[in-house]
Amino acid sequence: SKSESVAVVEAFIECLRYVVTKNISDPALCNSLIKSHLLSTLEWYFTDDSSSYKTFFSQTAGFVQGLAQSDSTKPLLNFFFEALKDLFNLLLSTLPKDSKNKEILISCKQIEFLHCLKQTHKKKRYSKVKFTTEHSDHNSINLKPKETLDNNDVYLEDLNTIVVSVCLVYVTFIQENHTK
Fewer CB near the last or first residue (10 Å), C or N of the chain? Predict the structure, then answer.
């Protein structure tokens, strides 16, 4: 059902947020999690007809905006944007020449995702769940989106850069595949 899909997506992003927050001192692990879990799931949503993609896009945008909140997570944000650009390139470059419907599906979803990244997500009430261990890190970073982005200008500049890159990819794609 739709409510179950939404719950799964929200839990997935919350778990990713938690693991990244607890392992912020290990950028290689965080990059690996972003690439192998977040971006591979994004790829699936770009190419599949799943109806829950809007929830995933929105939740992912909230996670990404959370990365923009701290200077210590800025490298993760940069990694995400570079990997996203590479993913967009890959999706277009691997399309079969005669797959107009798939091309339209992917490009519309990519545009919708970029639009989600631009919207500032409203602060949401989060359940107060606390995991403690003997070695709990009391200096963890909050990756939850705020009402307004503190680093809004920097985030939007990075987002604009990725949008320009994606536009250039599309111009090249159109020139190579749609000109006669």
Answer: C
